[in-house]
């Protein structure tokens, strides 16, 4: 009975560890999925399309590829450069040709009014390619010390402990139960 429990525990820990690593990798390394960047939705401005905790993957998009109705992520007004992580993800409600090039009027789906300033295309990081509901919560949790322990270190230690137990049992000459 104990061997079945140990096997189930090992399988569960492996599945949890692999699942967490895959999900975090897709969000942390969006190029694996064909994207350019990934972000976690933090506000409710795009509900119900995107909710806080969703992970989004964006791809670069030239001005010719961005149309009204597309959802884009752009550097917030006041962000200095690409290193600044202040990003906004809103829907394009108007596309305009200005003296300085293409610009967009954006609006969060849950907002009553469009955003007050036009977004020049130079500030656009990319168009949202796809999103994964709630995975961003896992990413945010994994960035905290408790999350790191629970999601990565805990299952890893559990797998090592089970392996050591089986090794000790095999050395003692008893069957491992597998």
From TrEMBL:
It is a single-pass type II membrane protein. It is found in: Endoplasmic reticulum membrane. GO terms for cellular component: membrane. Its main location: endoplasmic reticulum. InterPro entries: LexA/Signal_pep-like_sf, Pept_S26A_signal_pept_1_Ser-AS, Peptidase_S26, Peptidase_S26B. GO terms for biological process: signal peptide processing. Pfam families: Peptidase_S26. Keywords: Endoplasmic reticulum, Hydrolase, Membrane, Protease, Signal-anchor, Transmembrane, Transmembrane helix. Residues 20-83 form the Peptidase S26 domain. One of its GO terms (molecular function) is serine-type endopeptidase activity. This is Signal peptidase I. The lineage of its organism: Archaea, Methanobacteriati, Methanobacteriota, Stenosarchaea group, Halobacteria.
């Amino acid at each position: 009975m104990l061997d079945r429990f140990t096997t189930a525990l090992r399988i569960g820990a492996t599945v949890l560890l692999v699942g967490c690593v895959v999900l975090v990798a897709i969000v942390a390394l969006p190029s694996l999925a064909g994207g350019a960047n990934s972000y976690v939705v933090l506000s409710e401005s795009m509900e119900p399309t995107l909710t806080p905790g969703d992970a989004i993957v964006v791809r670069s998009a030239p001005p010719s590829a961005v149309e009204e109705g597309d959802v884009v992520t752009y550097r917030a007004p006041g962000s200095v450069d690409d290193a600044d992580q202040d990003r906004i993800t809103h829907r394009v409600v108007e596309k305009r040709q200005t003296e300085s090039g293409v610009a967009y009027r954006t609006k969060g789906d849950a907002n009553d009014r469009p955003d007050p300033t036009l977004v020049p295309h130079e500030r656009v990081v990319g168009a949202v390619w796809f999103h994964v509901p709630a995975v961003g919560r896992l990413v945010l949790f994994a960035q905290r010390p408790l999350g790191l322990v629970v999601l990565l270190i805990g299952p890893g230690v559990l797998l090592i402990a089970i392996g050591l137990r089986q090794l000790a049992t095999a050395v003692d000459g008893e069957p491992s139960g597998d």
